[in-house]
């Protein structure tokens, strides 16, 4: 019964709403990152296929598109860390409230 009691004690202190919210946050960040990357890749192909008349303009636009992709990755990593921070805060506050 030692293992069962230990698991029960840990599950009592888990903030289930925070776990669900963190999962939804991570899913949303992954969706944002994937859709943004796919949209910018499609934009690159459209510019290359239909609108590229001058190579210098095309090269500049491709650099801008790659910069936007890096901005998307930076934003996604920030929200990933922010979600993890909020989950940790949920664990700490749930434990503190249940001790009162």
UniProtKB/TrEMBL annotation:
Note the superkingdom of the native organism: Eukaryota
The record's subcellular locations are: Cell membrane; Myelin membrane
Q: What molecular functions are annotated in GO for this chain?
A: structural constituent of myelin sheath
Q: Which Pfam families match?
A: Myelin_PLP
What UniProt keywords apply to this chain's record, in alphabetical order?
A: Cell membrane, Disulfide bond, Lipoprotein, Membrane, Palmitate, Transmembrane, Transmembrane helix
- Annotated GO CC locations: myelin sheath; plasma membrane
This protein's membrane topology, according to the annotation, is:
Multi-pass membrane protein
Q: Which InterPro entries match?
A: Myelin_PLP (IPR001614), Myelin_PLP_CS (IPR018237)
Gene Ontology biological-process annotations: axon development; central nervous system myelination
What transmembrane ranges does the database entry give?
Answer: 12-32, 70-92
The job of this chain, per UniProt, is described as: This is the major myelin protein from the central nervous system. It plays an important role in the formation or maintenance of the multilamellar structure of myelin.
Entry's PANTHER family?
MYELIN PROTEOLIPID (PTHR11683), MYELIN PROTEOLIPID PROTEIN (PTHR11683:SF11)
Task: Return the similarity comment.
Answer: Belongs to the myelin proteolipid protein family.
User: What is the protein's name according to its record?
Assistant: Myelin proteolipid protein
State the organism of origin: Pongo abelii (Sumatran orangutan)
Higher taxonomy: Eukaryota, Metazoa, Chordata, Craniata, Vertebrata
